[in-house]
Structure formats: C-alpha cells, structure tokens
Automatic annotation (TrEMBL):
Signal peptide: none annotated. The lineage of its organism: Archaea, Methanobacteriati, Methanobacteriota, Stenosarchaea group, Methanomicrobia. The keyword Protease applies. PANTHER family: CEREVISIN-RELATED (PTHR43806:SF11), PEPTIDASE S8 (PTHR43806). Keywords: Hydrolase, Protease, Serine protease. Belongs to the peptidase S8 family. GO terms for biological process: proteolysis. The active site is at D181 (charge relay system), H224 (charge relay system), S537 (charge relay system). Residues 173-367, 525-572 form the Peptidase S8/S53 domain. This is S8 family serine peptidase. It comes from Methanospirillum hungatei. Residues 46-119 form the Fervidolysin-like N-terminal prodomain domain. GO terms for molecular function: serine-type endopeptidase activity.
Length: 766
C-alpha cells in the first residue's frame, strides 16, 4: 500500500500492498515545503511545546550544579533525569503554561549554572515509498536478474559482495547492534533468536520501550524498525524468509518512535544513552532531526559507532544539514542509498563533505511486522447492529471461505465529494489494568482509497478523542492487519472506538473494505511477513550489519577504526563521485578480508571452547599459541574420550584440526594462528558417545555438510557461547527451525558432538 501524506506533521503509516510494504514518501508536489524547498514533515514549530532539555554545568571538582532553585523560580520541574543512563546533569524539564519554549531557552541559557538548553525537537523516521527467497535481496547478491515482480533486472555485482564476505564470517560473536527506531516485531521467527534480552526490570524484555512509563516490550506498531532490524540481522540459513547482513547477531531494539514513525529528541537522547550504557557497539540511526547539542554530546561521549541515514529529500547536506548524519565526529558514519544499477537512489540526499559511503537502499527486502492471533477483549466478526453503527454507503459481504469474517465494503460513487463513511462501536470495552500487558486495537483493511482516515476513542464521559488522523492513499490488494497499542498514557479503564473515512473526489473511484475490528492481547505469530522498502533508512542498517561483523572478528577495534575499515574498502562508483566523501559503495567482502592479516581465535572472559579449521604451520602448531593468554592458573584442556575424560595440554602438545580445546581467559582477546599454506586431508576416529570437535572450514558451513563423513551416526552438536558463558541451543541431525542441521558450524569454535556408534570424522566433502 502506498501512502501519500498531505499534513505538515510527519505522520507516516504502516501500509502494505501484496508482497510489497510501502512507506509514504512519494510525490513531493503533494507536500508543503519550507523556505529551501525541503518537504516539511514536522509541526511548525518543530519541537514539543511545554518542555525543554537542560544541561547543567559541572563544578571544578566534577560535581554537577543544581538547578532546583532555577526550576522552582518559574514553576518548572524535572520529568526525566538522564543520569540514570550515564548522562550526568542532563534533564528534561516540564515548563509551566506561563512560559513559552523560546523564552524558557533564554531563561535557562542566561543562568551561569546552565551549560546549554534546547528544544525537545520532533524526530522523523527516514524512508521512501516502497520475501522468503534470497533471490530478492539484490543488495546482498546482485546477479543481474530480476529481484522483484514487475521490476527491471539489477546490474550484476551492484551489491555489497555479501557472498564472499560470508566466507569470512556470518556472525558478530556477541557484538550488540542497537536499533533506535519504531521498535521491532519481537515474535518474528526470522528475528526472535537474534534479539538482545535483559531482566533488569524483573521481567525478561528484548530491549526498551522509552515511550511507555512501565517496562514493556518494544513492539513495532509501525514497521520501519522491524524492516531495519531484518536488514541487519534476519537469521541466515534457517529456511525462513531472507537473510540479514549478519546471520547470527545480537540486535537491541530501542523504541523511540511511535506508530506514526515520529518521536521526540528527549526520547531519542535517552535511547542513545541507554544503548551505550548497555554495551551496544553499533547504534543504527535511520532518522533525522534538527541540530541538537544534547545529541551531539551523547554521541561524542559514546564509544559506539553511530551509523546514520543521510535522508531522502534529494538535497545536498553540505548546504542543508540534518542530524545525526552531519555531526563531524569520528564515531559517526553517514550513508546514502544506491539502487540495483549502482546509481545514487533518486530520493537520496548526498554530500561530498558530510556523507561518507553509499549502500543499497532501493527496493530492499526484509522483515515487516507479522500477522498475530489475539485474545480478544472485544470482537464481533459480523458487525452486528447491537455493537456497531454504520454511516455511509456500506455493503456487508460475507466471507468466501469457511470461518472467514464479514467485511464492510465502502462503495465510492462517481460523484463523490467528501462523503463520510464511519464505523462506530456502540459497546464500551473494559480494559483491565492489572495484567501487565498492553492491549491493541486491531483491524484488517484492503482496497484503493484516497482520503482522510480518523480513528477516535471515547470513554463514555469525554466524547471522542482522536487517536489517529492522517490523509493517505491506500493501494492494498489483499487483507493486511494493522494495529494501534492502547498505551499506558490512556488512563481511563474502558473505551469504544470510531473509524471515520472521508474519500476525496476525483482521485480514486475504487472500493475499500474493513473487517475484524477487535480490541485484545497479542498471541502467537500466524503468518511471518516480509516486504520491500526503499530509503536511506535501509542503507544505514546495511552498514550497521557490516560494522557488527567487523567488530565480531576484531572486538578491540574502536568505533573510529571500524568506520575507517568500511570507508577504506568501498567500491568506487561514478554515481557517488562528488556525492560522498569516499565516492564508493560499501563492500563487505573487502572489509572483512582487510582484517585477516592474521587468522585469529577469539577469546572472551571465562571458558572458551575453540578449535582450528585446518592444520597449523609447522613451528606454530602446539599449545604454545596460547602462551599469551592470561588464564588465571587454568590449563588448556582437551577431552580425550568417555573413559579418560579431560587431559591437560603441555606447551609442546600439538593443536590439530577436528579437535575441540577448552581455554580459559580473563579478558577479551584474539589469539593469532598461522595456518599451513597447504590444505591436506585430515581425519580423526570418533568413539560412540560425546566428543569435543571442531569444524574444518575457514567459513561457516552447515552441520550437515561438516559431519557428512559420520553419516547417520551423529545426532547432536552443541556449541558454547563464550560471550554469555552458556551452551547454545543444540543442532539436531534432521532437525527443524533453530535446531536444524542447516545451522552453521563456525570456524575456530569447538562443539560437543554425540554419536551413536564409532566412526571416522574427516575433512573435505569426499
């Protein structure tokens, strides 16, 4: 579904069409524009009335000056203290009605205890309008063949060389990538296993929802964040959908934008600080905002790499900067979008002094919010008269399949002129406040429609209050499930809902339909969803995934060093010359290969189960390779067999392929290894029972391929995640889902392997 927005405010709606998932930045002539001709997506003024951000100065001894007297003098109060996420002295201040934002800025800025004060700017998600097959993902592998229905073929090689890059690694090995966006579809089967989690609030959460005043999951009620997260880290080689740049990674969803795709600087700043405090090494930023000293300071103080989309207004950021892309900081990398022909995408901003690299951003295929079952608090699939009042020319259509609900079809006459079609719920629905869950307003929609859609709610006392209000062009060929959360800031205990459609004359004459209106709690995934989007919002997470893989190979690299690796290994493109600093599109293979001056065994604090993928060079093939490891007195161990158990290695004992070794380290480090220049066959006799083994390739290959020589004798393979010091979910021969034997055996990692009888384990495909 395409959406064309007409209001000044940047209300961007999740809308879907067939296999595509389209976001609404289409025809710029429909937008209002500002003095430099850039579409005006934000309110005027572009900041929140009634609050500002204030940074207090530090005293000479490092303590923060107090602002309580300054606040009290005008009746202001602190509503958020950023010291809780490591930003001392920064506060979000609620202003009294008697003082405007500009006057408050002047008041605070004139006080010697204040370093600076600035508005709480609105933030906008950056994307432009617009499966489970890998062939659709031209940005990862462009073969010069069609990648989307009714679309011209791409240019062979116009991609980030992911296939060759994955020969080096497909995993970020504990590196955390934060996605500051509209949240993530937590239950999506192609993302769930790659999501970060925390139990600091007493319940397990997969990120943080900063828009809520209680700890709840950062569900994506818009779609933008889920798509960006999938570009970074859709689970690879799992038989589900597509794959991300990083097959195995840790994505931290941080919801700072709402179900219109916009938000506030104060939430964004808190999200950046939260990601930094919780050890995110890469922070993916597919949004834009006015210049902010608060945001600049937070980024400058963070050790993370901020990967920022350049924006989609077709302007030169040298002249018309937007942020965070245009901060001149060593840990910021800004990204333009390229298309399947290796051209600069027609919507993309650019800047040869402000934007660093290009990455695929047009027609990018990724995850979008899944369809879910719901436990209803209210539903009426027949739209009975007792529960609904209908106004307008509606036709009631029964479902064509058994169990399919009734739908309401709005019939648009040729002489239509601002007629209103409404669906009003008569029944008030009680919303329990003690479940700890957020209920949702859910509905299905399809059809062609150009006009205004307003969704309102009422508690029976106060009449109708607007929940959604937008002007949009729908182009939806099949039913699509949309939803809005009943957020915690709705304090009343019960509600009813009204949908009002007002079509515009002379634009679209087709029908539209709605069904399955309900209020309820989210259940299980009934259909994983995927689709295409375009924008620099898609290009930035492409680079974020790359940064995570780079950091996973060499954990000690700083943000500035990771940025330099990415910039130094781009492919020059004529279309990006004089449009970016490097003049090139990123190349994953070149970036990862540039790190391989020495092969390494990555070690993390605690026990590590490691191996070598092939024979080591003579003279560098003993346990002496671990001599530099601070083991805190622990020995290097090798598991011999079921009866002998573990053996302690001396420094002169050989380290050989196909064998797993246990090494203890007090810190994160990389152990250099020198592989033999000749690749020779190698085999090992495996006894029935458990054995400690390693793979025999320098790249990830499936367990099925790795253990093919053992045929049907092997049953389980279990890796050990040294980052979190716990065993991974087992790989099962013939298994499905995340236990599938298509899961990769990673180089330099050890595995416990269970065999039902003796066998010969050997290298090569035989």
């Amino acid at each position: 579904m395409k959406i064309i927005l007409k209001k000044q405010i940047f209300w961007v709606l999740v809308c879907l069409a067939g296999l595509s998932f389209s976001f609404g930045m289409a025809d710029d002539t429909r937008y209002s524009t500002n003095v430099i001709g850039i579409p005006n997506f934000l309110p005027d003024p572009p900041y929140v009335n009634g609050s500002i951000l204030v940074q207090a100065k530090s005293n000479s001894d490092g303590t923060i000056q107090t602002l309580s007297d300054i606040n009290a003098a005008i009746g202001a109060e602190v509503t958020r203290d950023y010291g809780t996420v490591g930003i001392s002295g920064l506060s979000l201040i609620a202003l009294p009605d008697t003082i405007s934002v500009p006057d408050a800025i002047r008041y605070y800025s004139g006080n010697p205890a204040v370093a600076y004060a600035e508005p709480d700017y609105y933030v906008r998600a950056l994307k432009t309008p617009d499966d489970p097959q890998f062939w659709r993902q031209w940005g990862l592998s462009n073969t010069g063949t069609p990648f989307k229905e009714n679309t011209s073929p791409g240019l062979s090689g116009a991609d980030i060389s992911a296939l060759h890059g994955w020969n080096e690694t497909t995993a970020t090995h504990g590196t955390i990538i934060a996605v500051l966006d509209t949240g993530v579809d937590i239950g999506h089967p192609d993302l769930a296993k790659n999501l970060w989690s925390s139990s600091e609030s007493g319940t397990i959460l997969h990120g943080i929802n900063i828009l809520e005043d209680k700890p709840v999951e950062p569900w994506d009620d818009y779609g933008h964040g889920t798509h960006c997260a999938g570009v970074i880290g859709m689970i690879g080689n799992n038989g589900e959908g597509g794959t991300g740049v990083a097959w195995n990674t840790t994505i931290m969803p941080i919801k700072v934008l709402n179900y219109f795709g916009n938000g506030k600087l104060s939430d964004l700043a808190f999200g950046m600080a939260y990601a930094t405090m919780h050890d995110a090494s890469v922070i993916s930023c597919s949004f834009g905002v006015e210049y902010s000293r608060v945001m600049e300071d937070i980024i400058r103080q963070s050790p993370a790499l901020f990967v920022c989309s350049a924006g989609n207004n077709e302007v030169d950021l040298n002249r018309y900067p937007q942020y965070p892309a245009c901060y001149n900081l060593s840990n910021v990398i800004a990204v333009v979008a390229t298309d399947a022909q290796d051209h600069l995408s027609d919507f993309s901003n650019y800047g040869n002094r402000t934007v660093h690299v290009g990455a695929p951003g047009s027609d990018i295929y990724s995850t979008i919010p899944s369809r879910y079952s719901y436990t209803p608090l209210f539903e009426d699939p027949t739209f009975s008269e007792g529960n609904f009042t209908l106004t307008g020319n509606w036709t009631r259509n029964p479902g064509t399949m058994p169990g399919e609900p009734v739908s309401l079809q709005g019939v648009l006459p040729e002489d239509l002129f601002h007629d209103t079609y409404s669906i009003e719920m008569n029944k008030t629905v009680l919303i329990p406040d003690d479940t700890g869950k957020i209920p949702y307003l859910v509905w299905d929609i399809k059809g062609d429609f150009w006009g205004s859609l307003v969704i309102e709610y009422s508690n029976g006392v106060v009449n109708w209050t607007t929940l959604w209000d937008y002007t949009a062009y729908f182009e939806e060929d099949d039913w699509r499930q949309l939803f809005i959360p009943w957020n915690s800031w709705y304090s009343d205990p019960s509600y009813k809902v009204r949908f009002s459609f007002q079509p515009f004359n002379g634009v679209i004459k087709n029908d539209f339909s709605i069904r399955n209106i309900m209020i309820g709690y989210r259940g299980e995934v009934t259909k994983p969803e995927y689709g295409y989007m375009s924008g620099t919002s898609m290009a930035a997470p492409m680079v974020s995934g790359m940064a995570g893989l780079i950091k996973g190979i060499v954990p000690d690299l700083t943000a500035e060093e990771v940025k330099q690796v990415i910039m130094d290994t781009t492919d020059p493109l004529p279309s990006l010359q004089e449009r970016t600093i490097t003049g090139g599109r990123v190349n994953l293979s070149a970036a990862l290969k540039s790190l391989k001056k020495d092969d390494i065994i990555p070690l993390y604090p605690g026990w590590n189960h490691v191996s070598v993928p092939r024979q080591l060079k003579e003279g560098y093939d003993t346990a002496q390779i671990f001599a530099s490891v601070n083991s805190s007195g622990h020995s290097v161990l090798v598991y011999v067999n079921n009866s002998t158990g573990y053996k302690t290695l001396s420094m002169n004992d050989p380290v050989v392929p196909l064998q797993g070794y246990w090494v203890y380290s007090t810190s994160t480090m990389a152990v250099p290894v020198r592989l033999s220049d000749q690749i020779k066959p190698f085999s090992r006799e495996i006894q029935a029972g458990w054995s400690s083994v390693g793979g025999w390739m320098e790249t990830d290959i499936s367990a099925k391929e790795t253990f093919h020589s053992l045929m049907n004798t092997w049953s389980y393979a279990t890796g050990y995640d040294a980052v979190v010091q716990q065993y991974e979910e087992p790989i099962i021969r013939g298994g499905t889902g995340n236990q599938s034997d298509e899961r990769p055996i990673q180089p330099y990692h050890g595995y416990w392997l269970y065999c039902s009888q003796n066998g010969t384990y050997q290298t090569g495909f035989g």
